[in-house]
Amino acid sequence: MSALFVTDDSASRHQTPHGHPEQPLRHSAIMSACAAHIQEKWTKRQAPEASYEQLCLIHSPAYVETLMHELQIKAISTERLHQIDGDTFAGPDSLDAALRGAGGACALVDHVMGNGGVGFSAMRPPGHHAEPDRAMGFCLFSSAAIAARYAQTEYGAERVAVLDFDVHQGNGTQAAFWDQPDLLYASSHQMPLYPGTGAANERGAHDNIFNLPFAKGKGGAEILSGWREQLLPAIADGHPDLIVISAGFDAHEDDPLGGLKMTADDFYALTRAISELAAGCCGGRIVSVLEGGYELNALGASVLAHLQVLAES
Ligand SMILES: [Zn+2]
Predict the structure, then answer these.
(1) In the chain, is it the N or the C terminus that has fewer CB atoms within a 10 Å radius of its CB?
(2) 10 Å Cβ neighbour count for 155?
């Protein structure tokens, strides 16, 4: 088994306004916390740009063309960033970073579907709030959903599951998968919280979506039990050929945006449980893409814990 780590410097150059939690320092925090481990255990490669066809696996052609045009002509100044929605911004390097976020996720699919093993993409902006027809919540392209669909169209995977433990529910992934019987989505998240979706009775058109909301203040013990007793068995019943993780670390107790109380050790244990599921159902194939996580020390420690498990699997 081999472990592939993809990233690109554009993840450090995608700008947001001063004081914005989704900041360039997130990337350097991860890279410095994980440098020695990556050097020892992972093959590192530059994240490639996604093709137009890959983006259109989830997004409408009109959305892709409009957003790319908008970013090319409006997001040209680092002093005056282009605002896309209430909290989503873009500068001169944002299109490159977003394209490499989606392309990096697809490159991981190429790796694990071809060779087995695992992959992690350390790119920003995140992706799981981007819907088929709109950017939102810091997100431009829905990278995890694109990777899942790409595994089906390029490699004939019958079913693919996206597992999302970000503190926010991935409304974009849910919207893309809603009426797709062979795409499964499982999410633990805080509720009520942005974006407002993710009630337990949101099940998808084919009972293919599994939402497990938690009240503010819940910690790793409750969240891990929820995954072990409800979400992971539901995903195992679907017999996926690939597991994609929307790896957000803002459910950490120190995170400024969330109110859940997970620790780096909890992310280690949760990744272990997901890895055991993948070993049983899909030969251990896991593609993991970075979503949220906004307290820099907590983010670095949590990503390191996540990578340590994946590299051993
Ligand atoms: Zn989040």
Answers:
(1) N
(2) 15
Cα separation of 143 and 148, whole Å? 9
Q: In Å, how far are 75, 82, 111, 118, 138 from 186, measured between CA atoms? A: 34, 33, 23, 19, 21
Distance from the alpha carbon of residue 147 to the mean position of ligand 1, in angstroms: 19
Buried-exposed string 158-191: b where 16+ CB fall within 10 A, e elsewhere: ebbbbbbbbbbbbbbbbbbbbebebbbbbbbbbb
pLDDT tens-place string over residues 233-255: 999 999 999 999 999 999 999 99
- How far from the centroid of its chain's Cα atoms is residue 190's Cα? 16
> What's 91's domain CATH number?
3.40.800.20
Q: In terms of residue numbers, what domain contains 56?
A: 3-312
Instruction: Give me 199's structure tokens.
Output: 């009630």
pLDDT tens per residue across span 19-67: 999 999 999 999 999 999 999 999 999 999 999 999 999 999 999 999 9
Tell me the CA–centroid distance for residue 88 and ligand 1, in Å: 13
CA of 86 from ligand 1 middle (Å) equals 15
Which residues are identified as catalytic? Answer: 129
Reduced 3-state DSSP string for 23-69: CCHHHHHHHHHHHHHHHHHCEEEECCCCCHHHHCCCCCHHHHHHHHH
**Number of compact structural domains in the chain:** 1
Ligand 1 geometric centre to CA of 298 (Å): 14
Residue 1: its pLDDT value, please?
56
Listed residue (36, 29, 68, 73) closest to 49, CA to CA: 68
C-alpha 11 – ligand 1 centre gap (Å) = 17
Predicted TM-score (pTM) above 0.90: yes
| Spatial CA neighbour of 184 closest among 213, 216, 153, 152 | 152
